[in-house]
Amino acid sequence: xxxxxxxxxxxxxxxxxxxxxxxxxxxxxxxxxxxxxxxxxxxxxxxxxxxxxxxxxxxxxxxxxxxxxxxxxxxxxxxxxxxxxxxxxxxxxxxxxxxxxxxxxxxxxxxxxxxxxxxxxxxxxxxxxxxxxxxxxxxxxxxxxxxxxxxxxxxxxxxxxxxxxxxxxxxxxxxxxxxxxxxxxxxxxxxxxxxxxxxxxxxxxxxxxxxxxxxxxxxxxxxxxxxxxxxxxxxxxxxxxxxxxxxxxxxxxxxxxxxxxxxxxxxxxxxxxxxxxxxxxxxxxxxxxxxxxxxxxxxxxxxxxxxxxxxxxxxxxxxxxx
Length: 322
Fold this sequence. Notes:
globular, 6-stranded mixed beta sheet
């Protein structure tokens, strides 16, 4: 229910409720001679920022470059380039925003990646949203393939239908994502070879701490091998929800680098901080726990077309042998 009416709710709050609250507080708390004027000015600023965030603020796409060094990385993979993108929410990139999707695809291909990974939330609500851009995503190419996992929106948790229809919709979503050219990893892994060396790319289904979050992710099923077999290998783990990193991934496996999304970086930030930090310990960029790390992408789109000082992004991760 919340997801289906998120944009309407945001418009009411951003353009009406919040400006009205700020104006009223200024009238009540400030001296009468200038409280009204300041209230009007602040309300106007809020309306402008919301409008800007939904128009010019939503369009920029940045390329964030990071490196991750590990002693476990085989020498043949030193300099290996992975492009991560996340949280596209393609239904938001329609109409006048349709060019943003092609901009995203061209930017990813322009990085000459060895591997492309998508860390979830391709749709907003319904799988039918994925049909128009299906062929566009087939333009993505990388020498070692394009991999994907599902995000919470890619399940049927926000759909208003019975369980049978929800199950069928989940199957349709998975089928369309595969037709986009992605190797969809559903608690699975693949082995990537370079000469006689190899690394593992593993993809968990969504697992989140929130009450309504799908909890389909299974670390042991994802690796699907005796732990001793993979213990000495470099594992790149894909998991949409970053809360899974501390709850499941760190204690249950040896994955050196995890890539996640989900938070959107709060979609706005103030001096590098966003209120989403109250809900997520890891919500943006690289975080480390000893020699292991997680990168949380702020996303390439969003359900609500709004961003303020928190642009859409793709992330280029260069692996280094330590």
